[in-house]
Amino acid sequence: MRLEDITVALRPRQPWESVDLGCAMVRRDFGRIIVLWICTVLPLWVLVCVLLRAVPEWIPLVVWWLKPLYDRVPLYFLSRAAFGVRPGFFETWKQWPRLWITNCLPALLWRRLSFMRSFALPAQMLEGMRGAAVKKRIQTLATDGGSSGVSMTFAFSNIELAAWIGLMWGTYGLLPESAQPDWAGLFQSFDFEGTIPNAFLWWGAVCHMIIVTLVEPFYVGAGFALYLNCRTRIEGWDVELAFRRLATRLTSATAVVILAVMMIFGVQSSVQAEEDRYGRNPTPTLQDDFLKEISSNLENIKKEPSSQTDPATAVRKVLDEPEFEIHKRQNPEWVWDDDKSKDKKTDSKLQVPGFLGTLLELLFWALVLGLGVWLVVYLVKNRHLFVTRSVSKVPVQAPKVLMGMNITRESLPDDIVAAARAAWAAGDFHEALSLLYRGSLSWLVNRRRVPISDSDTEEDCLVKVLQAGDKTEAEYFRQLTTAWVQVAYAVLPVSNEEMGALCDRWPFVEKGGAS
Amino acid sequence: MAVTRADTLQSVELADGVEIQLRVAGPAVRSMAYMIDLLIRIGVDILVAILAFMLLPDLVGMEMTNGLFLLFVFFMEWFYNVFFEAGAKGSTPGQRSMKLRVMSVTGGPVSLAQAVMRNFLRVVDFMPGLYLTGIVCMLFTKRFQRLGDLVANTVVTYAEVPIFMAPHVEIRAERRAPSKVLTREEQAALLQFLERAPLWADERRIELATLAHPLTEAAGVEGLRRLCGMALWLQDPEDKSGTPPSLKGAGMFRS
After folding, report:
1. CA quadruple A481, A485, A487, A493: dihedral positive or negative?
2. Is residue A442 within 8 Å of A412, Cβ to Cβ?
3. Nearest C-alpha in A relative to B160
């Protein structure tokens, strides 16, 4: 492990942030991880399915129980990839048996229900710890007592469960009817075997595996990142990395070249002192070479005449170098020909456009004024489109004909009730009720302003009267409508008492007046 | 190795060439925030149901109460998140408890339109059931965005910059200017060292200080002392404390 090669940005993070870092790491290599997963985990899954083919409802549980095994290959890959060496497929393939056998029994038995499973896994697998040592190591690592590892497990199991149910839910409609459970029967009898078809159980197992494949690598990555974060915190990996880079930078050639440049510009320090300072350097041979170079440079400078080292001359000399040559390039650019029109304006023949311009301006303003006037006139004419209609102000256009019946006041006799009684006595029931009905409608429409329109049916009229009129009138109108409909459409006779009551209770008269 | 470093900081270049870094939050912490919000919503719904069905039927009738309650549930489902995310804090109570907030990708607060868009698209993220689309989308996008976030151009970020609480210690080292010109990253590393060294064992401190040998030009405890001196100088070049106390080996960090 070389810290310099790390491919993860190290920095002490909040626990949740390091979980996110794990997700980012897995996402970066998800393709490779999934190939490894398919080659190592899928055979086991197929084996489990074959062994448990008689009881498919147990498959998801067993698959879930075996999860600690699946985590190891992705962890191996991630831990190598984090330090810049992505293991090849065959390399990992060869490691596979060893990875699964190491610490496999505790992981599958008494450590299976640990809530810090993925956080503890790197300590077991990468540090090769066993037994009580793992527990102690985890305690050291988990600066917050492992609560971040536990809550991460909680979050990921929620995600996994939600995604599993979501997938089942989403694909439920696609299943053939024979594969769908009989829910009603299930809740009545709790007879699982009879009501849940085997196909559904198999489909559940497949969906479970798909979701585990999707989520589990992220869970492993999150645990690994949490582990990295803890070590970064308590061992200062990020500081170590920065110091290593600092050391590389300071001992590299560039540093010495910068030093040489500084010397040329007159930093008067004795070469001897530099040599002393670099004498204790870890890479003396390299340093010696550079120091020789520097000292020879210094000798050359000393030999040259003083005018050469004069800053002004030096600057001029540098500016004369080809790098500082100022290049010029001409780009033709299309420019509005402003000057020429100005020139022409001074000519006499361009006086005319000036006059024309005034004319055009006048025309323009006339047009604007005309448009404005037209707009005002248009708005005033069509003001009904813009003003919200209020019922009280705009009179309702009372219909003259309703359901094929003339209901104008003029078409009716003055004393409607008397005319109706007469028609009833003559045996013309239809005419009698029609008179009453038309009379009441006429009253309601013209006097009470009930908003009945000429397309309304008897039913509509009744509803509107019930909504608008006062109670006695509405009640009377309801009875009248029933009687009228009975006579006119059903051709059923109306009893004498009923007719008498209708005539006696006729409410549509001027108050105080007699009819 | 020219591999891009995996990181949780996502930089965004704004229109005026400024680059900002967003501390985006991933699916795990967001699912926790969602669970808390869900529980809050269910709790409020139940509370309102109890109150409404106790008081309202006498006043407005059973059917009206039913209708009003369903209306309330509807608004809770659709506007709970919009209301809080477009508000001043930019976060729902659940997100606030996980120290998250919703932001525009440009780092500004979300507008009402963005909040409406990202929350109304929850319907799409929910498909085919229980946010499967949203989960997959979050796992595989760089900024952990679900579809609603992608459409509304929003991200969920950590609301607070973590404050590293180092125990207060007295550092007995002589303030001294670094012998070399240091880049910003190196200066930051020196300061980090000074801040976090109290948490480490003596051996680890010396080991790290030895790594910086080209800078300190001394090994062992002397190197550590010089490194701390330089870090102190970076913290505050002016020495205000007068003469430094005498040095006593590795036991420089006194809690």
Report:
1. negative
2. yes
3. A14
> Which residues on chain B are in Cβ contact (under 8 Å) with A251?
214
- What pTM was estimated for this model as a whole? 0.63
Q: Give the CA dihedral B29, B33, B36, B37, nearest 10 degrees.
A: -160
What are the beta bridge partners of residue A406?
A401
- The interface predicted TM-score (ipTM) is 0.84
What pLDDT sits at residue B255? 38
Name chain A contacts of B162, Cβ cutoff 8 Å: 12-14, 17
Domain spans of chain A, in order of start: 3-242, 252-319, 352-360+366-386, 401-504
Q: What pLDDT is attached to residue A374?
A: 94
**pLDDT tens digits, one per residue of B157-166:** 998 776 666 5
pLDDT digits (tens, 9 = 90+) for A282-303: 444 444 554 455 555 555 544 5
Q: Are B145 and B155 in contact (CB under 8 A)?
A: yes
Instruction: List chain A residues with CB under 8 Å of B164.
Output: 12
Name the more confident of B168 and A37. A37
Q: What pLDDT score was predicted for residue A372?
A: 95
Residue B231 reports pLDDT greater than 80: yes
For residue B70, the tally of other CB atoms under 10 A from its CB is: 10
**Do residues B144 and B24 touch, judged by C-beta distance below 8 A?**
yes
The per-residue b/e assignment along A394-410, b for 16 or more CB within 10 angstroms, e otherwise, is eeeebbeebbeeebeee
Of A84, A234, A246, the CB nearest to B1: A84
As a whole number of angstroms, the distance between CA A389 and CA A449 comes to: 16
Ramachandran assignment for B220, one of left (phi > 0), alpha (psi -120 to 50 degrees), beta (any other): left
Domain ranges in chain B? 9-158, 170-254
Number of helices (H), then strands (E), belonging to chain B: the values are 11, 6
